[in-house]
Amino acid sequence: MQSFIVEHYLYKEVDVYAGGPDVFQGKIEACADGVLTLKTGDMLTHIAIDKIIAIWEKKE
């Protein structure tokens, strides 16, 4: 999954679903060591890659 994210989504705006009611949104800044890093404004969100159920590019 990590190599797929780096190849197809790095530096793109995405929505990430990892279960429950929350969908994380932001620009992918990094994807390494099993962690996806999203940037929203000046805040970073780190998500364990093995917890990701779905990821899709945000439509403008």
What topology emerges from the helices and strands here?
Elements: H1 2-9, E1 13-17, E2 23-32, E3 35-40, E4 43-48, E5 54-57
Morphology call: globular
CATH topology call: SH3 type barrels
According to DSSP, the number of beta strands is: 5
Q: What structural class do you assign from the helix and strand content?
A: mainly beta
Biggest sheet strand order reads: 4-3-2-1-5
Rounded Rg: 10 Å
CATH-derived architecture: Roll
| Tally of helical runs | 1
CATH class: Mainly Beta
Written as H for each helix and E for each strand, in order along the chain, the element string is HEEEEE
Pfam family, one: DUF6897
InterPro entries: DUF6897, MM0924_fam
Mind explaining what this structure looks like?
Strands 4-3-2-1-5 form a 5-stranded antiparallel beta sheet. The N and C termini lie far apart (24 Å). It has one helix at residues 2-9; strands at residues 13-17, 23-32, 35-40, 43-48, 54-57. Helix content is 13%, strand content 52%. The chain has a single domain, classed as SH3 type barrels (Roll). The model has no long low-confidence stretch (mean pLDDT 95). The chain is mainly beta and 60 residues long.
